[in-house]
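Chapter review. Work through the record for ImpB mucB samB family protein before attempting the end-of-chapter questions.
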Amino acid sequence: MYDYQNELRRVILMIDSKSFYASVEAVRLKLNPLKAILVVMSTEKNTGSGLVLAASPMAKKLFGISNVTRARDVPIHDKRLIIEPPKMNLYIQVNQKINRIFQQFTAEEDIQPYSIDESLLDVTDSWQLFGATPYEVARKIQLAVKKETGIYLTVGIGDNPLLAKLALDLEAKRNHSLIAEWHYEDVPDKLWPVTQLDDVWSIGHRTAEKLNQKHIHSMYDIAHTNPYRLKQEMGVMGAQLFAFSWGIDRAVVRHKYKAKEKSYGNSQVLPRDYFIQAEIEVVIREIAEQVAARLRAHHKATTVISLGIGFSFAAKEDASRGGFGRSMKIDATNANQQLTKHAIQLFREEWQHESIRHISIACSNLVDDSAEQLDMFDTQFINLKKQKLDSTVDEIRKRYGFTSVVKLSSKVKGATAIERAGLVGGHAGGNAYE
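Structure tokens for ImpB mucB samB family protein:
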């Protein structure tokens, strides 16, 4: 048995807002989130015929609907089922309200929002102020959030972030209280019996298949495999899996909280497979200009541009890869023309005529735009004229909306900028140019 004497023992809560989008919609309609039969379903073009983003517990139970169910498989004619479009701005507001409630129980630097519906809290230094046990504190947090927002929380409690996450995913969601508590000593009884390896956080379907091929079929098997063999055959992932199988995670929430380097990016799931170069490049230009506008709005310029391309399902099979990503260092800029030029260059250097379904562009290694360097092939006069034009268009769009000024190219076949202007996170709800 592993000696946990030298491992950190903290009080970590991993908190999940149960069926978050669906619960927010149920509360908005003055319904009980656990009893409402409701789905949040996107029917925008960029999800084909539509995709379920969230389903209430009762919708899952009655109809077997999951968060990846296609619209065509949803019983839309059943009068019991409520179907709501996504309202991303509302979900963001409720998420922010919930995280403010968490700050009543621990310091802000000890809270790490993990996603829009999950947060990690380190209450080691504060839990005794609010209850006799961490379990009691978790219950108080559940009640506080339920009272203020109507949302039900599921809570995993652990000695470290990993154990809290495992407690959440593998036990709490099945408990009547929606709370579970795991300690190092629980690993043999609670973690090792797991045989559905991709149920375990950080183990994807492909990794599970690789492990099965090595005759590793449970977390017990991982824990009792030679760690040097795992590392040799699977690299860093192998070493990490061995540590996880023993419940070891030395991450500290407060350290994770340090802000990542700021970057700006946008992406687009295309409404169909794109395989014509001109159509693909229209969308690349649109996204690059969208990112450029965000840089200018925040008075930043970028020195690194990255392009990500995701292939269609058919192309993934033929190309034996899911897509590609490329980055390049550039002179500091936030100009439309420069960023579109570099993005198109990255695309042309790597693309081999595969059909495309997803495009993303990100700009990082930012500097203040006052530090922007002029391209040696541009005269200062021409460069300033371009910047002034970009800024003028930004101001008009800020005042009257994105569609008040659009390029002719955004009207051609394949363009998506006009439709995308009203989306948040790829779904209805706001202005993605901010």
